[in-house]
Amino acid sequence: MSTTVDTKCLHAGYVPGNGEARQLPIYQSTTWKYSTSDDMGKLFDLEASGYFYTRLQNPTNDAVAAKICELEGGYAAMLTSSGQAANFFAVFNICEAGDHFITSSSIYGGTYNLFGVTMKKMGIECTFVDQNLPYEELCKFIKPNTKCIFGETITNPTVDILDFDKFSKLAHDHGIPLIVDNTFATPVNCNPLKLGADIVTHSTTKYIDGHASSVGGAIVDSGNFDWLAHKEKFPGLTTPDDSYHGIIYAERFGKAAYITKATSQLMRDLGSIQAPQNAYYVQIGLESLAVRMERHVKNATKIAEYLASDDRIAWVKYPGLKTDSAHELMLKYMPKGSCGVLCFGVKGGREASIKFMDSLKLSTIATHVADCKTLLLHPASHTHRQMSEEQLKEAGVAPDLIRFSVGLEDPDDIIADIKQALDIALA
């Protein structure tokens, strides 16, 4: 198998045998047949591998997870029903009531609510931090019960870039894993596991699918974090699981312990499995991911350069701009470019930005992002609507911020649409 990302997008994960289906089959079945009771019993005891109920695993899902795993350079992976489910499982797999974790305050609004509201009700405390603080300041947020650090490769919607060197050092100096949401960069433009992260999550709904056809998520584990070396911190992986006859995941499954626990315990009980049909759509999207990401970056760079030159635009944020505060980190961690998402504000403030959005004809107002078609929204009114003014400020979401997800259209057509909308909004 080639090591190039372009070829992996097409061929990794599923290799048909002689006379088998060229395209990945959709196993649209809830259950699997076994000849004896003992055969099935071994599956329930985790003594044998196989399938018995799609709420836990499905062959179509596993093939797609294997492709994402290979693209990320991971050891094991699983699909979930959404990116939200992936982020929840990724943290909840190692955190329980009474535990604490740290995350960047600049993460996606839905994840912010998940961590700061819902998981708080479960007895898990989350501290939101400014990811631009120096290492020494970030160390002060670590507590004896801190179990992981979470961040986004490229923040949504503020398109800042995580400093992997700083955050992987912060995590590993304190004996905890670094979990990174790699949705915006995709494994085409960034491999967090090669930059010091231990676990990667994705909303496959975004660029990986790329066509707004299926909601889904993924978790990829590097297999590198030594759970047994920090046994007292991670009892869920290093002490007996009574629901599986006392299995100790880290001892029984080694590098596969984290994903095995997430599948056999969390997916068993919470059931946030991705539908096989959706996994098939993800597989189709993955085949063109490399070529699409190249075009997204090319288009977004051209749009950002135009916006920066138009005096009706108050500001523009895109790591691909040489003047951007995240440009040096982009060159360091993702030399191919960041993604197709940028943000900006229109002169005249929040109301002018909203009028501009309402005047667009080609670009679409939608809650979606990272799609083959150009989409945009106003985070303060939409994805981050539940956050207070103080929380919006902490997350870096300005009142006039427009998240603009540049699609695969001719960039000149996108620019023409922006120009006519600005003419109307600022007339």
Explain the overall architecture.
This protein is of the alpha/beta class and 427 residues long. It contains 17 helices and 12 strands. The strands form 2 sheets. A 7-stranded mixed sheet has the order 1-7-6-5-4-2-3, sandwiched between helices. α1 runs antiparallel to α3, α3 packs parallel to α12 and α15 packs across α17. The chain is globular, with a radius of gyration of 22 Å. The model has no long low-confidence stretch (mean pLDDT 94).
Which helices and strands occur, and which strands form pairs?
Layout: H1 5-11, H2 37-44, H3 59-72, E1 76-80, H4 83-92, E2 100-104, H5 109-121, E3 125-129, H6 135-139, E4 146-152, H7 164-173, E5 178-181, H8 186-189, E6 199-203, E7 217-221, H9 235-238, H10 249-253, H11 257-270, H12 276-287, H13 289-309, E8 313-317, H14 327-333, E9 341-346, H15 349-358, E10 364-365, E11 375-377, H16 389-395, E12 402-405, H17 411-425
Parallel strand pairs: 2-3, 2-4, 4-5, 5-6, 10-11
Antiparallel strand pairs: 1-7, 6-7, 8-9, 9-12, 11-12
